[in-house]
Amino acid sequence: MFYIALVVYNFNLTNDRLKALKIAVYSRNRTFFYTEPDLIRMTTPLLNGSELTMLRFWLNGLPLDTLADFCSEDDHPATVLADCRARLILKARRLKTDWGENWLERKTRADWLPLTLKRVEWLLETGDIEPDLQQPLAYWLADEWRDKLQPLSIVTVVDWVAVYQTHITANWWQAVPGLGAVSAKAVEAQLARHFPEALIKVPPIPSAVTYQTGVVPLEQFLLPEAYNGTNGENRSPNAPFIPANDDYQAIFCWLARLDPNSHTYRSYRREAERLLLWTILVKQKALSSLNIVDLSEYRSFCGDPQPQALWIGSPQKKGHTHWKPFTGPLSLRSRRFSETVLNGLFAFLVSQRYLAHNPLQALPKLKSPNGQQPMDINRSFTGPQWQLITSFLDSRVDASTGPEKLKWLRTRLVVQLGYGTGLRLHEMAQATLGDLAGKQRQGKVQYWLAVLGKGQKMREVPVTFPLYLLLTESYQQLTGRQLNRPSPDYPLIPPLRGSESKPLTPLALHKILKQAFALAAEDLAKEQPETAEKLQYASAHWLRHTHGSTAVDRNIPLTMIRDNLGHSSIATTSHYVHADKDARHEAFSEGFSGK
Predict the structure, then answer these.
(1) Do residues 149 and 176 lie in contact, with contact meaning Cβ atoms separated by under 8 Å?
(2) DSSP tag of 312
(3) Nearest to 69, CA basis, from 82, 55, 50
(4) Residues paired with residue 4 on neighbouring β-strands, in sequence order
(5) Quick check: 381 and 532 in contact, CB under 8 A?
(6) Could you give the CA distance from residue 486 to residue 432 in angstroms, rounded to a whole number?
(7) What is the pLDDT of residues 248-266, one digit of tens each?
(8) C-alpha to C-alpha distance for 355 and 445, rounded to whole angstroms
(9) 432: which strand partners?
(10) What is the DSSP secondary structure assignment for residue 447, as one 8-state letter?
(11) Around 497, how many Cα atoms within 13 Å sit in the side-chain half-sphere?
């Protein structure tokens, strides 16, 4: 036990600072004096009381599972013990002892335990060297983490700081094989004990947005003065109710009514963006000058955007060099949705006295030649096909290791979550840990996921116990944390790199699923060609269709399925009421065969 007495010499204050401050530490009738820098370092002791006790018990041969009482609920004894030993080994290295690298490994020699305890005591009592950025990284960072940094040729602390500081907006560890977010945080935590100022990142001055009149996102689009709508042919003669002098401002007044983080906002902005770009770049006129003839041409354009090289590209983030407004010609259903949204835009601008009339109102609504047919329920998987998919995912998880295993663990989680809940892609992306709750009902715990769906409507989706177990196990393996430990704002589907609190985008989830389905198709091509062909076209919405079809096949009432999927009408849900075509054909062939 250490007894600390504060002894102040030369009690002369200058500028509110004590001079020649010393501290006396008495232990077993011995006294050690420390100067002011030593005192500052001692505010964070090498080992606290619980850690020292746990280490001594371990050195005396006690197993790890008996040391849990010395750790917090979030920590494991093995992790805490490894950290304590690393601190002692590093200090012994800094003080240039001749004990060797394995002096703190448990041994069976009779003289080993007393000698090791004496060395630990000496390290706790002896002052440390002053931290300096020019010192070897081996002085301050455990070997297990330092070995992972070898590809970066990091020798000194300042070498690592240079790497850390040059990645202000990115993750510095992404270029290091085998080093992920969890390991990187361990490295940062060890170095932060001695070099806290080195981890303070100064955000760079954001580069100015480059506005241009071209095929760019709405936020970067430069509205030409000649087509800004100030003198649009359809402008209302009255003063508008909204603070908009031109068409660009008017669009954002319309969008301002919506939650900028919602799926509705993103889809509405996309449709306004497409129309504005086409209006300026193709028609070369103002949005507020569009008439019924123009909008009829726009309808045809959406069905076949030309030239494709200018308008069509693979999905990319806003601001990406290869971003395009379209990923392909819009289907009839997508065109109908687009016109519904744009009709709402024009109606809003008319109601706010910005436009004189709604030019889209007079255009006949798009009708499908097969409008009476139900939705394409073939965009779903049968029971046997679903078993093949789950077996494929399980095999990939079992066969992989390291970062690859984490990738497949998360992919399986995304696929099973989509199938088990029927969530839309954006609903999965925005789901957080706080949305998942257990409720005691009828003598047992039920798990429910709160979902903000279309039209900003809230609903609760049941989470089966097997799916809940998969969520808890996957989250633990992906993040090293229990499902109920992090902040409730953390995403339910965790990222593999970067901040745990930053959710995956719907586009990222789309890519995860498309890649998984493509690899599954490749794996099943020889033995299951029909399933493989389906998988080549499958997307996130197939999981939603499969959820609905499976629920109907298991005789779950349509009203329950409607509430689960967030349909506004039971008519939409009833599309899942179907019989397998082969079985139906066989049944009617037998019934009307004339026998």
Answers:
(1) yes
(2) B
(3) 50
(4) 25
(5) no
(6) 11
(7) 999 999 999 988 877 788 8
(8) 55
(9) 491
(10) E
(11) 15
